Amino acid sequence: xxxPNIQLFNFESQEIRFVDDKPVAIDVAKxxxxxxxxxxxxxxxxxxxxxxxxxxxxxxxxxxxIISNLL
Length: 71
Prior knowledge:
Blueprint: E1 6-11, E2 14-19, E3 22-23, H1 25-31, H2 37-44, E4 50-54, E5 64-68
Antiparallel strand pairs: 1-2, 2-3, 4-5
């Protein structure tokens, strides 16, 4: 597999990460002010619109992040 293309977008002093041109849903939920961003993503994004990316060293030491193109 190839390394995903990662870009950063700054919205009103808050960072939103994009992976392969898709926003990281948890970042968007935080910007929108959800009190519990992980829960908001879990509850509001349909499973078919989620995908898992496993990052390597530079991206949070290989944590799994949920990516959504809906939020």
